[in-house]
Amino acid sequence: MKAWTCVFLVLLALVGPSVVSAQTPAPSLSKELVATYQRAAKEMLDMAEAMPAEKYSYKPAPEISTFGDQLVHLSAIMQRFVDSAKGTKTEEHQHGAMTKPETIALLKKSFQSVEDMITPLSDAQLLEPVKFPFGDRTVTRATFWQGPMYQIRNHYGQLVVYLRMNGIVPPASVRR
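The chain above was modelled as a monomer; its predicted structure follows.
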């Protein structure tokens, strides 16, 4: 009896992992890209909500953009990538002329525009060559959509400082 139990356990050890891995779907580059944007959008929008409206004009030094202008600028960058992908051009919003609710609405719209562009893309389409909107180079569509993600993370890092200089803990840090 012990021999059969040992044989069964050895077979289970050999076959078990292949059965489990056969049930796990392969990772999808396109789904991972969408999920990454959704996380970034949540973190940026939470940060935008955390800063009081009267602090949207805050800037750590005179030569630096205000908190609100940073968010408007980020929205413009994301829109530039969307426009480049569509072959269109959108009118830019004026820095310093927007209220907190207008800025957040613009930011939400920009994130949604990016998500609308990347959600239908297949993994194969993400590997296709496209023109990058800055400079004269061709990249994969996946690399193209990493461009705005780089900018989102860059501005996120800057805006963490703005919040902390105003005594506000960034929402993503609170969740930990």
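The longest helix spans residues 141-165.
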